[in-house]
Each structure stands twice: as C-alpha cells, then as structure tokens.
Amino acid sequence: MHRGNIQRSSLYPHRPPIIIFHPVFQAFLSRLAKPFKSTDYSRDDFRVADALLHKAAQYYPSKADRRFALGHLFTHFLGSGVLGGAMLDRGGHTLESDGSLPVICGLYDVVELGRWVMCKILTVMSNGVGLGDCDPMEKCEKIYALLELLRQVSCMPAFLIAISGPSISISGATYLDGVVSGRLLRCFPMVPPTASRKVQAGYPSSRDQHVGQLVHILRVLRQCLDELDVYYSQLKQPLDSPLLPAPHFQTFTPPNSGPVQLRYLERIDPRALFLAEASGGSLKQQPTTCIVKFTTQYGKAAHELMLSLDVAAPLLHCSWEPSVGMWVVITEFLEEPEGATPSAEGLERLRKALVMLHEKGLVFGDLRAPNVMLDKDGHPRLIDFDWSGVDGEAQYPGSLNVDAGFPEGVKRCDFITAEHDRIMLKKYEESFEKAE
C-alpha cells in the first residue's frame, strides 16, 4: 500500500491537514471563533488571567524563573503539570519538557507501560522571543516513536503549547507516516496591544477585554483536553480497518437516501486524497470504490454542470463539512485504461461542455492531462475542480508552477479566464496528435 512520505520540512500544501484526522482540532478552532461574553466565565478565571498578564510581562533572569512564576496560573486553567517542568522517561528515552499532561490510554492493559506514556499536551517555553532551543515537534516524535501499537490505531492527537516570553501559541499534532503539526493559534500576546477597537460592552477597558480573550482561549483548550481524555480512555483495537489512522469523516447522507458509510483503503498521496469504499444508503449492495478529497476550495457549481453534460467524474458527495472545516468531495473511482486516447466524439463533447461552462460565466482552471480521465470508450471526464470558479474572479494560486504547461504569460495569482481554458484544451488535444 502506497501512502507517500511526509517530511517535516514539506510545504503546507503538500501534507494533510490535521483537522481531517481528529475532530478535536476543528472543535478548538470553531469554539475559539465563537463570540462570547465576559459572563460566560467565572470571576476567578478573570482574576487568574489578569495575574497571568501581569507576570508574563515581567523580566525573569532565566527560563526556570519564568516557568515558576507562571506555572500555577496555567495550572488553574489546564491542569497540574502543564508548566511544571519535568524529565520524562519513556522506555529509556529521556525527554526534557517544560510541561506535559499525561493521558490514560485504554488500548493498553493496566500493567503495560504504554497506558501512561502518551501525553495530550506538551509545553515548551523560552524566556523571550528567539531565545532558547525548543522544537516541540522533535520532542513529540521521540514520544510517538515508542508507541507502535497506538500508532496502528490512532493518529495520536495532542496539543503543543509554545510560550516565547510574553506570548503563547498553540498547535495540534498527529502521527501519520511521521509527525504532522498544524498551527491553531499564532502568537497571542500576553501583553495587551495598543487599544484600537471599540471595547465590547461589559468590559471596563481594552485591557480587561484582552484578559477575557485569554480566558476564552485557555478554557476552550481545557475543554478539548478533557475530550482527549475520553478519547484515549475509550480506545480499542478496531476489528477491520485497512487504513489507520483514517479521517474521522466516515458517514454522509445523499439526497433521498439513508446514511452512507466510508471505509478508507489508502491515502493516495501525502495530501488529503484517499481511496475508499462507500456502502449503504441508496448505493448498490456491493461497495462502491470512490475517491475522497478534502480541500479548502472547490468549484461545486462547475463540477455539477459538467457532470450533467457527462464530462466529469460522478459525484457521490460534495459539501462543506463543519466537522473538518473543509470541503469533502467524494467521486466514483475512475481508472483510465493503459494507452487510452480520446475519441473524436469524446473531444467534441468536451468542447461543447466547455462552451456551456463559459456561457454560465464559469471557468475550469486546470485543464491539464492529469485532470482529464479517459474511459474505455475514449470519453474524457474532468476530475479536479479546485480552481474552478467565476471567470475573471477565480485566480491561480501563489504557488503556481508557471512552467508546468499553463498558457504562455500566465503568472502566479493571475485571474483565470475562459481563454485560458480554451488554450489548455487545445494543448490537450495537440498532445495526442503529436503522439500519433
């Protein structure tokens, strides 16, 4: 089974987002973005957070002094040990941490070491921005490597806190083919910024409102940590799952149908693209092999139009899913016969469909050969509508490789036009003429 290699140095577009593998990370983001009032939290929370801002802004001779000054205040919100500073002994591997919260893992027996090895949060601190040598990901890897049984069952979700002087950032981490992390909160200042916005009703000053924001962040994090306690305690060895860890999105309900279950078979590349089987609901008795794609943007209208004209991959599901914070696009699996070439009838059908797409004011965006599948009769079907959108409004990404066969003169971040689609279709047709 090919899964692709995930490197810690890889760019964000080429590694899977952590939110598709466990719901706790999207829950954190959703709750953090939800409006709140000062009355939602206790007065003790506000007093402790206020003290935290005071102490975080002070100078400390060493990291140990800073950790000692702030530790009990973070404990109020997150639990004892979150900033306790400890040497973690994990099966002969010693890990220096500025804080951690262990979690009981129900996958292991009460007498096994693995029951107590996993941490739901790791904290790394420096005494100031740019000071110290702390790499939370490297330290997580050392722990994860010891838990082979757990890695076969779970993506091992955990939170990482990095405290750099008077600022705090929060990341999520999972283990796939290696450690994959994603930033959830970027450098929240524990020194209030200069007031520049209207103060929300109920707060006496902008500083007090900033205290409220810190309370909200830490309480949302604590809620998610409590949910990880439940998750790990209830872990069991699954009976049948070819791909572990797998995305947590495993059920969808098509129109006029009952729920359809997904069984993930393989991760097709290092990004968020999976081979799966769909069964149940209105589908046939035999499982339907499909492709499940998680993406931040998708041209649903363009895909549905081209599908109605029989030049796109059949859609089983296409919807923005709040539980993962992304589009989930499920299409029937298409396998192109070796040496396939487009038929004259198929090309004419694609030309006409493209004209109709443009008449609707839409563009396809990336009409290169890898995004055109041919069936046994030589009929082309488009399979990737990530860049599709309104003509002259949809744009090429900033990471575009301009030398990868796009129309001459196209630059990164340019608007995509109908003319570009026509040029790309002509190039596609000419590639087969040259092969002959």
TrEMBL record:
Looking up InterPro entries in the UniProt record yields: Kinase-like_dom_sf
Q: Which SUPFAM superfamilies match?
A: Protein kinase-like (PK-like) (SSF56112)
Name this protein carries in UniProt: Uncharacterized protein
Q: Please tell me the species this chain comes from.
A: Agrocybe chaxingu
